[in-house]
Amino acid sequence: MPELPEVEVVRRGLARWTTGARVEAVEVLHPRPVRRHTAGPDDLVARLVGARIDDVVRRGKFLWFELDTGEALLAHLGMSGQLLLEPPDAPDEKHLRVRLRLADREGGALQGRELRFVDQRMFGGLAVVDLLPTPDGLPGGTGGAPPRAAEGHDDDGVPRLGVPSSSRVPEGVAHIARDPFDPHLDDAALLARLRTRRSGVKRALLDQDLLSGVGNIYADEALWRSKLHGERSASALTRPAASRLLGDVRDVMAEALAQGGTSFDSLYVDVNGASGYFERGLAVYGREGRPCPRCGAPVRREAFANRSSHSCPVCQPRPRSASGR
DNA sequence: CCAACTACCTGAGCGC
DNA sequence: TGCGCTCAGGTAGTTG
């Protein structure tokens, strides 16, 4: 269940170890994870072999390798995808889908490791796509490389992940909104748009065309922090309440990132196969029946859009009607 | 433009 | 031992 913090952990590992490396060979072991590459697996391999990785960039839950060919290797982890850096003699994972052999970059920091895409449920995938100019002309994603990236924290303690080296985004990602860690996200415009939505506020948080990177876990956690039920109408939020909610989204994701992300099992891991530790920081998600950390009431689980929502029945009362108050 | 729904996938867990 | 069911859920595509 990788959401923005988990994808960013992976991006950092990939940027550290693969920038400057050249792709020597590619093996596609299952067609489904490359389905978004419409020209087929052979074409994907041909476009990758010989290319050099210049940068690793992220927007929301999408990440991509900028290549010196002018194209990008676009990756989405879906539900269960992993990008692992491993020695070539490591045994194949049960759900290994794509193997990329990388040549050592100068200095040998990569030490001949393989980049492997492993994905049990195959909701994720890889594709080689064109890079297109961003509509607003601003840099295209979050999490770029030096020298211009100035990783650190702003006054709110929120990670500012730097500016990517290009002003382009991969084809097919243009409709994905900027994410809460993107230095170019226009908060005021986002909040104004959020407050025009007629749907419940949780549904709006999960809309990747409005704000990207938020999934079911961090939506529930941010709503708990803001003491809002997810079915409250987005359009009925006051401006300060909407602003606080965005702040809570940023806070919970920043805390999760600092802990290496959230892991419930071995499905989400960093490039070295290690799990994050934020599960212990979760207040409501996956904690049905256990006490709300704020008031002690047992956490409630409700059906929501073919999945589940978790909330505190006392801190987050259901709205009186669908219109939400 | 917006909202709501479904298909796509596999494996763990459970009742019988 | 195994069958059938439910659940996990991000995204693309379709429908209204």
TrEMBL record:
Reactions catalysed, as given in the entry? Hydrolysis of DNA containing ring-opened 7-methylguanine residues, releasing 2,6-diamino-4-hydroxy-5-(N-methyl)formamidopyrimidine; 2'-deoxyribonucleotide-(2'-deoxyribose 5'-phosphate)-2'-deoxyribonucleotide-DNA = a 3'-end 2'-deoxyribonucleotide-(2,3-dehydro-2,3-deoxyribose 5'-phosphate)-DNA + a 5'-end 5'-phospho-2'-deoxyribonucleoside-DNA + H(+)
List residues of the Formamidopyrimidine-DNA glycosylase catalytic domain.
Answer: 2-124
- Report the cofactors: Zn(2+)
Can you say what this protein is called?
Formamidopyrimidine-DNA glycosylase
Active site residues according to the UniProt entry: P2 (schiff-base intermediate with dna), E3 (proton donor), K61 (proton donor), R307 (proton donor)
UniProt: DNA binding residues: H95, R121, R197
InterPro entries in the cross-refs: FPG_cat (IPR012319), FPG_Glyclase (IPR020629), FPG_N (IPR035937), H2TH_FPG (IPR015886), Ribosomal_uS13-like_H2TH (IPR010979), Znf_DNA_glyclase/AP_lyase (IPR000214), Znf_FPG/IleRS (IPR010663)
Gene encoding this chain? mutM
Any one biological process term the GO annotation gives: base-excision repair
> Which organism is this entry from?
Quadrisphaera granulorum
